[in-house]
# Entry
Amino acid sequence: MSTATEIPQIDLQPYKSLENGALETRIQAVRDALGPRLLILGHHYQQDEVVAQCDLRGDSYQLSQMAADSTDCRHIAFCGVHFMAETADILANRPEKLVERKGERVQVYLPDMAAGCSMADMAAIDQIEDAWDQLGELLDTEDITPVTYINSAATLKSFVGRHGGIVCTSSNARAALDWAFSRTSRVMFFPDQHLGRNTALGMDITEDQMPVWDPYADDLGGNSEQGLQASKVILWKGHCSVHQMFKPEHVALFRDKHPGIQILVHPECPRDVFELADESGSTGKIIKTVEAAPAGSKWAIGTELHLVNRLKQEHPDQEIHFLSPVVCMCATMYRIDLAHLCWTLENLAAGTPVNRIDVNEETAKWSLVALERMLEVR
Ligand code: SF4
# Structure
């Protein structure tokens, strides 16, 4: 509730009925007023009209580097999902950056707080801690390195930092696992079982050395003691609801209908699709692969729909298909629209900031330990 001296926040509702042209003009007015103090970051999976308003766009890893490198900016409007904005807050406000800015923090805003990530939500910190405690009754947890995919809450990154672990991205998952195995003989990988499995299979670790921990099972994540004792990588039962939708029959369909087509997928896809693909890689690698391909190349790409459609528009000399007959877009990313962005920016300009992401000091401290390892390991 506001007091007599507080300025009330501007209400979101009226923005929802504005046309895109009007929203774009108003967003530009805030950008002009704040100049380099404002940075709008956007993930590749965002809608086109949102991407058009971003100063920089990238995948989770690239965006975290951009936030880490920011110099002039004091405000980041993050057009992505919640865990990405948390990571930006931690990296942009790490101790050496605060010293450079004489203690002034970069404020990070997520235009719609409901923009979460279904994968990140599949691993809650209390579930991870419970699993770790159960493992500790059976195995030596000093000999397990926890590895969390960047698509996870800051609380998980903090857990990993406190327990000698590392954050990985889809581009450095192999390097992160190599790093982990140089320290311990086992790894616990969360929250994406597919990225963990696809990466470990490429390191000659077999499927039977990778039990899956189900946080809803009664005991030991649904595993036997022998299974866990024989494990090399304990995978968490989480997945991306977008990449989980791609199926082997989609690969067969495109190969049948389009001879010579190449299948290019993200490693969050299930093993059977990943192994059938001609090429795979992070969002950044998918973009670079298409950029480097000659005219006339034919692709069926297994990743988020908005990105594939943008690649189609940007490379009309190539034949690009979405690797599924059904729509697979990231519904939570899609929550960020021009109305929410404009509302966030105008509140910021009016001195009534909304939707600020502020990771608490202790969580940020340990998350940073794990994130800095991620930035070093490539
Ligand atoms: S595409 Fe999947 S992993 Fe990425 S933000 Fe959306 S739900 Fe999360």
About this structure: The mean pLDDT is 95. The chain is about 40% helix and 15% strand.
